[in-house]
Design brief:
By secondary structure, the protein is α+β, with helices and mostly antiparallel strands. It contains five helices and six strands. The N and C termini lie far apart (49 Å).
C-alpha cells in the first residue's frame, strides 16, 4: 500500500466498512493518535471510527494533498460532518502523518488538527467559554 491507496481508503470508508477491511489496511498494533485519542491496536481504532459514525451525521474525509517519502506520508484532508440533530454542515482541515511497514500496512497514524476552534467552539455551551478565553488571551 502507498499513500494514495490509503487516501482512497479514507475517502471511501463509511459506517458499513467492516473490521476485516481495517485489518487489511492497518497492522494489528497500529498506533493512532489525535487530539482525543492515543491508542494502540486495530480493534481500538475500529471502535473510534464506529463511535464517530454513531455520534456524527454523514462524516467523510476528502484528501487534498499527499506528500510521500519512503515509508512516511503526510495527508492533508478536509473532514465534513454535522452534529446529530443539527442540519448545519461543518468541516475542518487536518493533516495526518502516516507510517507504513515493509508489508505496506499502516503502523502509525497521527492526526494534527485544532480541536478548540474546530469542535469546542461549535458546541453551544462550550463556545461561549472558548470565545471568552480567546478574548482574554488576545487582549
Amino acid at each position: 500500500m502507498n499513500a494514495f491507496t490509503y487516501a482512497a481508503f479514507f475517502e471511501e470508508i463509511d459506517k458499513n466498512t467492516s473490521i476485516e477491511v481495517y485489518r487489511k489496511i492497518f497492522d494489528k498494533n497500529v498506533q493512532f493518535k489525535d487530539p482525543f485519542h492515543d491508542i494502540i491496536g486495530v480493534d481500538k481504532l475500529y471502535k473510534i471510527f464506529e463511535d464517530m459514525y454513531i455520534k456524527l451525521d454523514n462524516p467523510s474525509f476528502k484528501v487534498t494533498e499527499i506528500v510521500e517519502q519512503n515509508n512516511i506520508a503526510y495527508l492533508k484532508w478536509n473532514f465534513h460532518f454535522s452534529f446529530k440533530g443539527s442540519n448545519k454542515d461543518e468541516s475542518f482541515v487536518g493533516v495526518s502523518r502516516v507510517e507504513f511497514n515493509k508489508e505496506g500496512k499502516v503502523i502509525s497514524h497521527i492526526d494534527y488538527w485544532d480541536s478548540a476552534s474546530n469542535l469546542y467552539e461549535k458546541i453551544p455551551i462550550l463556545s461561549f467559554f472558548m470565545k471568552f478565553i480567546k478574548s482574554k488571551i488576545n487582549s
